[in-house]
Amino acid sequence: MAYKSQRPKQQRPVRSRSANQGSRRTIVRVVAGLIALMMVGSLAFVVVGTAGSNSNQAATPTLPSPEKCPAPDKSDAPRLAFNSRPTWCLEPGVNYTAVFDTTEGKIRVALDKARTPETVNNFVVLSRYGYYDTTMLFRFDPSIDIIQGGAPNTNDWSDQGPGYNIPDEGGQFLSTASGQILGPFAYQQGDLVMARSSGPDSSGAQFFFAAGPQTALLDANGSYIVFGRADEDGIEVLQSMMGLYVVDESSQYGGGPSRDVFVRSVTIEVD
Q1: Is 254 helix (H, G, I), strand (E, B) or coil?
Q2: What structural domains and CATH numbers belong to the chain?
Q3: SS3 track for the chain
Q4: pLDDT tens digit string along 196-235?
C-alpha cells in the first residue's frame, strides 16, 4: 500500500447447527472483508508475493541469509534496496522498542516479537539500515484514522519498496473466491501496522499507525499485520498529528496535514 514524493498536501468460518446458517455467515464474512478492503484499497503498494502463509507460530522462522545483520548503531546506514528479505537478526530473550522521532513529537512503540517475529525482524533490520530516516508521513485518512509512512524513495504510495515482500503471520489468513485475503487482526488506537496489497505475503516496508477508533473499520478484513503498539504519550502525538488534517480536493488522498510531517529517525532500543 503505497505514494509521489510531493508534499502531503497533495496526500491526500464457524459452522452453527444449521448448515444454511453457516453458509450465510461465511458469505457475510467475505462480503464484509471485501467492503473493508475497498475502503483501504489505496493502502496497497507492493507487488503480490508468492504463496500464502497460515503461520501461527512465534518460533524463529527459517530465512535466507544473504548478508550479515546491520550494526545496531546504524553505522551500516543508509541502505534502501535489497535482493531478498533480511536474515534473522533478533536476539532471544530481548524486547525491542521502536522510537519514532517525528517533527510532531516522539512515538515509542513496543514491538510484538511473540506474535509477529518476522515482521518485527524486518522492521528492526530496515530501521538499523536507516531506511525510515528523514521520510514523510505522507497519507492521513481520518475516515479510517490512519497515518501512513515508510516510503523513502518517493514519499508516496507508489514507492517500489525495499525489493522484497515478507510472509503473512500472526494467525490464519484465508483467500476468498475473488482472491482477496481475510486475516485474524483487529485494530485499536496506537497500533503500528504493516501496509500491504490485496494478495498474500505482500507486506514489505510501508506501515501505518492507527491514530483513532475508526481504524476498527478494518477489522472485517483483518489482513493488515499489527506488529507493535505505541505508549500513551505516543498515542497523544498521533492524535495531535491527525488534528492537523485539512481537506484538499486536489490531493490524491483527499487531504492531508496542514504542514509536512516527517520521521526524522527510527531508533531501535532493546532491554
Answers
A1: coil
A2: 8-270 (2.40.100.10)
A3: CCCCCCCHHHCCCCCCCCHHHHHHHHHHHHHHHHHHHHHCHHHCCCCCCCCCCCCCCCCCCCCCCCCCCCCCCCCCCCCCCCCCCCCCCCCCCCCEEEEEEECCEEEEEEECCCCCHHHHHHHHHHHHCCCCCCEECCEEECCCCEEEECCCCCCCCCCCCCCCCECCCCCCCEECCCCCEECCCCCCCCEEEECCCCCCCCECCCEEEECCHHHHHHHHCCCCCEEEEECHHHHHHHHHHHCCEEECCCCCCCEEECCCCEEEEEEEEEC
A4: 998 999 999 999 999 999 999 999 999 999 999 999 999 9
